Each structure stands twice: as structure tokens, then as C-alpha cells.
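**User:**
My hope is that you can spare some time for a protein that puzzles me. This is the protein in question:
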Amino acid sequence: MKQILKSVLVLLLIPVAIFAQDLKGTDAIPFDANVKKGTLKNGLTYYIRRNTKPENKVDLRLVINAGSILETDDQQGLAHFMEHMCFNGTKRFPKNQLVDYLQSIGVKFGQHLNAYTSFDETVYFLPIPSDNPEKLEKGFQILEDWAFNANLTPEEIDKERGVVLEEYRLGLGADKRMEDKYIPKMMYNSQYANRLPIGKKEILENFKYDKLISFYKDWYRPNLMSVIVVGDIDVAAMEKKIKDHFESYQNPKNEKPRKTFDVPNHKETFVAIESDKEAAQTQIQLLYKDYGLPKKVKTINDLKENLTEGLFSTMLNNRLNELTNSPTPPFTYGFTYHGGTFARNKEAFQSFAMIDESKQIEALKVLVTENERVKKFGFTTGEFERAKSEILARSESSYKDRDKKESEDYVWRYQSNFLEQSPSPDAEWSFNATKNLLPTITLNDVNVLIKDYLKDDNKVVVITSPEKEGLKKVTEQEVLAALKVNANDLKPYEDRAVASSLLRNPVKAGSVVKKETNDKIGSTTLTLSNGAKVTYKKTDFKNDEILLEALSFGGSNLYTNDEMKKVQFANGGLTEAGFSGLDQNDIDKFMAGKIASVSPYISNTTEGFRGSTTPKDLEYAFQMVHAYFTDLNLNAAAFEGYKQKQSNFFENMMSQPSFYFQQEFYTYLNKENPRWNGIVPTKEKWAEVDYQLAYNKYKERFANAGDFEFFFVGNVDDATMEEFSKKYIASLPSNNVKESAKDLGYRLLKGDIKKVVKKGKDPKSNVTIMFYGDATYSPKEAIAMTALGEVLTIKLIEELRENESGVYGVSARGSMNKMPYGSYNFNIGFPCGPENAEKLIASALTELDKIIKNGPEEKDVNKYKEAEALEYKKKMKENRYWMTNFTKSFMNGSSPEDILVASENVKAVTAKEIQDVAVKYLSKDKTIGILMPE
């Protein structure tokens, strides 16, 4: 999906100085003057930008323009292996000291400290505090060591083999088996087909040390590197640090050329039809590869072409989305775009769809037909105007938040500039360029693109599906025949009239009967004439964002067991019918160029809404809430379409070992729960679904707005909030009934339980260790339980990953809940080799037992506190964190002011309190679930 709006995002994610009306098409796109870009004498490129969101933090990034594509035959997988080694010890930070130091200053391994390796690049992330000179200096020492001073000792290399092989193991399965078969056709005759970054198992197990060392020496060199520094820093001081740490290094005397690798064109249409017994879904990919190299976006004309491609993708995907919303959807979802492939220097016009396994050829024909329909008739004026309004709305929203961008957003942008020479102007120039260029693009400019996209050669079709009895495998001849469409049979797209409003019934406004303010947290609460409450907090964290949620106690726990089984899988499809007599396509067309979305939901204990919008489009969000309350459509045909899409998605999920394990494990633990109905719907479950009943129960749940509290956080205006609350919420139906969360009394099985589930042919296991039960909720214990999870995670990474090389990832999570009953929950989870499962379970429980007997080490508690302190500082300036605080306070009946002392409460937690919750809750029965291969 990432690539769909690539052409639009080139404009929207990049910043700009004032757009001159007389700029010529051949003029170069200006580079953002707020960025210090430079090149050292040795060829290293650097980017530095001061940005104070978040405050007192800097994002450091080391980018190497080298990845798996440069490996020799006996180095396959070593680009990625090298990435691992950089975390295993360097000259200044031997062994585990690097991770240990970063954790001590609040940087979490995996969540903050991370890296990735792809075909063409290797990238290291290092976000650190910037308010301490010593921490900043250490950060640059780490970057320098990663670049030039990794410790590649035989001992450390051999130790890391196990961890990398565990990551390799994670990727095994149906998707990998099918990919191995179709990649040679998709990337025909190209190095990309033979250099998947994870590499080959036999090489990872047996490579000689010198192969890794030579890769590091050959490709980790200054003229293939970029250092990016964005954050709350002094630009001149950072430039000096870059020079101090990197300028003295030289490139190899006889350096290897950094080759680029082509993806050769081919006259054939390659067809790959792959199936697997463990495949969960059926998917189609259709690629028309470009003949030439991707065109760099350097000039105003290039930008205009990019924008034209964005309009094309937007319109075609809107059509595909309309088909998806139909009562007989050809696919669960489908999209088409022109953009990148696995190869950096090969783009393609490509379509993708998840489909009904029994209608593979029909779905392929739909994708081909829609392409051909555009080719013959083009798009309509209405579609064109809506697409322009969508792109302009996104551009304007990005522009309005230009001074609120997170540092990480800029870092990605400069990385693209270094690796792919993507343009990087500033936000004001980008918005003005979009605004000025859009009117100069004609409908014909967009319509003609398809003629270059579609071709008779250089094509690839990939179909992947389950392999099972009764499912006929399609043939290559059927696929090739489906690519041929008789243009004479095509009819033009019919564009329906756009609705004039989201509401069809008159609204009689209510009133505000009480207004209260909380100066401590800056919130206002309106009590409305129908009993509903609206609490809002105005923030300046984002200029163009407002989040909304609404909550009412009740939920599906108020249904009978029989009712629940009939509606459980129907609830998610109720909104597919639309509202106010408008179907989903009517709503989508009306909302073109507007940014607002609202979704109702019914959980076990609550019903409510979640949504987001902008100050400009806030009224539409209020109207959606009103419509979902009062005028949800009843449309059996729309629900049947929803069922079809859900069936396509879930029908073969049980063939996937990890999903099968979840289903079997939780079915076993819920065997005393009469409401348990499985994780996903089966054909038998769909047969029990009662859409009319689900609709009636929904109307019942949303019949009383007086039992709801609405929360809004963001750039709100007092007068506007009061006006819209009176008009759209105070006008909603209500009564005097106040419901509460109901505890049905059903619990997971208790006792010392071990459940082994066998599924799958790959040597893969998954382990879940759980502790759970009823408990009197205590805010203090809740913090200690969370801390216990974080502290134990540190220890599990040290032991199971670093010392035993038995896992790639492992985590522990602890929590306590108050509603609908007091409870605790603690989980330890990790994937591993089947032969190691029991040994690693024992190791994990040993680490937990150490904390139970001796308490956690003080240094680990301090690591937790440092990380939480950094997170708290950042999150206190995020709308989402404040929204979560309001809804959590509603659920727990606690004060929203608790957010002000949250950091102090974390600082106050002691090793003894962490040990106490471990002793109290984790010394008793445990439940262990293990997935084993068949």
C-alpha cells in the first residue's frame, strides 16, 4: 500500500520558500534552506536540521548506500548479519555495553534503537536525549563505531549466528515458499532475484569470518555513507561533531565500484501460479514493468508529472474502492499504482488484490478491465475534480502542521534525498507548488498516462493461494486469456451525483445546561440538555488535528449468550450499509477533499465512537456521529458484501500455524465460557449470524446519548465546540437510564496448565507463558506490574537472545485492569526452534524466579524509569496520549488529573514494590502454550 500515493507524498511530505508564479518548468526544485547539507572531503554526506518536536531529543541516523545486492555468492545474508554485529560490540562499547549504556539513558532496544537491511541500503536508528553534552557525544561515538569500528571477533560472530538464524526461522512459512518460486519471474534475470536480504541458511551457518569482515571493509566507507542529525540541537555544534568523528576516515585505496543492477526487460508475459497448504489468503499481483530507469524528480516539470501520476492513482483506486463496497465485491481490497518494485532502478504499473479463492480469474479480469476502461474512456470531470480536492486537502493539512513535524519525519526525507535523490523543498513551497500546479494539469494529461503504463510485453502476473482439496488450480492459459479484454464490450464509468449533505433529517438543537472548566489540565466539560457530556481539551501539539472518542457503559455483555453468538461477527459490518440513506460510495464522494472519519463500535463493556478530523472539517465529524446515532442504514445486500470480503480474508486463516495455535489455545482456555465463539468466523459461524438482530441491538445500544461522554482533543475552538455540541449532540435522543459495565463472571481456565498445539511443517515454535486472575485493582500495583514487564524484558533479552542465542525477539508485559472486574495479566512470549522450546521456557522462568526471590537489579529499574521519563516528556505533547488519559479515567472512574503526576508515580516505584507484585501474582499457577510443528 505504501507506494499507492507515492507521487502525491513526494509533494506532501517535503518542505518550501515562497512559490513564484513565474517559475519555469525547467527550474530546479529548491532544497530546503532550513537544512544544513554538506559533504566531507572523504565523500560522506550529512544533513543537519534543528527541530524541537520532540523537545530535548535528537534523531541520529547512519545510512549506508549498500545492502544485500552487493553480496558475493558466498556472502548471501551477510549485509544483514553485519547490521546485527553493530549491536554486539564496538571499539568503544565492547560486547553488550552499547545496548546497556543506551538503555541506561532511556533508549529501548528494538523500540527506539534499531536498524534494517534491504537490497540497496543498510540504515541504523539512534534517537537519544539532546539535553546532555555527554549523551550527545556518546551518540556520535556510537555512530562512528557502527560505521568503522565494529568488533568482528570469531567469538561474537559465532554467538550471533543463532540470533540471525532465529530471525531467518521467523520468515519461514507459506509466503516464503511461494515467494521463492515467483521472485525469479518478477525480477527476471536480475541480481534482485538472488539476493533476498535474509540470505541463505547454509551460508549463515557456515560462512568464514573473513567474508563478513571483507563486506564491512568494502562497503562501510565514507563515500557510501550519510549521517543525518535532526532534533533539538545547535546546528553548528553538530556539524563540528560530524567532522570530528568522521572526517579522518579514508575510503579504501582500491575501492570496489558501487554497482547498480538492472532488471532486464523481457518480451514474455511471465505467469507464476503458486499455492501452499498453509497459505491463508488468495492474492493477485499484476505488473507492467517500465522499459527504462525511473525518472528523477528534479525540476518543476518533474514535480508536475509526479502530481499527475498521483491524480491518476487516486482516481483509479477510488473506482476500485467503489467495486469493493458493492454487494458482490470482486475482492476484499484492491489497488493500483505506478511506482517502485524490489529494485531501486525499476518501476512498474502494478495492481494488487486480495480475492475470493474460487474467483481468481474473475478478479484478475476486473483489474485488467478497469485499466482498459480508463485507456478507452479516460476519467470523468467529476472524478478529476474530486481527486484534485483530495490531494489539495492533504497538502494543505501538511502545510498547516509544518511547524509541528516530528524530527523522525524529516530524517526519512533526507534519507530518501541521499539514497534516491528525492526532492526536499520546504513545506510552504510544497503547498504553494501543489496549489499552483494542480490547475495547470488537464484531464487529458492524466488520461494519457495509461497508454505508457499498459504494454503487451514486460508483464508479470503472480497468483498465490491455498492448496486444498476441492480448489481447482488456475492454469497459465486461463491467466493469459484473462489479460485480453475486448474493448468493444466496455462501457464508460458512470459517475453518480454527489450528495448535498451527510444528514437527511432536520436537526433540532438542544442546549448547554452546565459548563465546567478544569484549569489544572486545561479541559472544559459541557453538560447538555439531553444529559450527554462533552469534554474537550484545546492543544497546540498539532495545528490541523482533532481526535474524538465517545464512551458509554453497557456493551455486548448486556446481550444474552444466544444473542451474542448471532451478532458477534455481524457487528463489524453494520457500518457497511452507510447512513442517512447514503451508501459507502456516496459518503466517500461527498467527503472528497474533506478530512474527517468516525467509526462506531460495540465492545464487551462499552459502546462508543473513535474518529479524527481537522478544525476545518470538524462539523462533518459531528454530523457523522449524529447520523450513526439516529440514521444508520439497514441494507442486507451491503452486509452480504461485507460477509464475502470477511470470508475471503478469514476462510483459510486456520491453515496458518500461528493463527491455528491462537484459536486452539484460547478455545481450550475458554472451554468453561458459554459465550466463546472462536477468534474468527467460519462458514458455520456465518450461517448463525443474524444481521437484523445485530442492527436492532446496535439501535438499542445507541438509543440513549444521555449515557455517553464525548471527548475531543486537539486544535479546538470554544465557541465552535459549544455550537456543534448543542446542534449535533444535545439533539440526540436520550432517557434517564444510566448503565454500568457488567461482569458476566466467565474466566479463563485456572490451574497450572500446559497446552501444546501441533501445526505446520516448518521447524518453528511459539511460546506463550501467562499468569492471570482476579485482583483488587491498585494504581500503585498497576505501575509496579508494568515495570515488572519492562524489567523482565531487559533480562530476557540478555539471557535468551544475547547469552543463549536462542531467540530473535522476546518480551514480557504486565498489566492490571479495573473494569469490568479487578484483574491482573502477565505474559511472556517468544518464537524459537522446536528443539529449544523447553530449555528456553526454563530459562525465562528462571529469570522471573530471580526477581521473585531477590527483586530486580536497581540498574534495570533505573533503565525502566529513564525510558518512561523520556516517553512521558514526549507523550505529554501528543493529542493521542491525552485522549487515552480521558478515556482511561472514564473507564476507571479516576481523575484525569492523574496524568500530571504519572511521571512522579513511575519515579517513585521501588525494586521492592516490583518484587512484591511478582511474589503476589506470579508465584502461583501459570499457563503455558506451545506451538510445535506437526
In short: Residues 171 and 198 are 9 Å apart (CA to CA). The two ends are 34 Å apart (CA to CA). Residues 300-324 form the longest helix (25 residues). The longest strand covers residues 331-340.
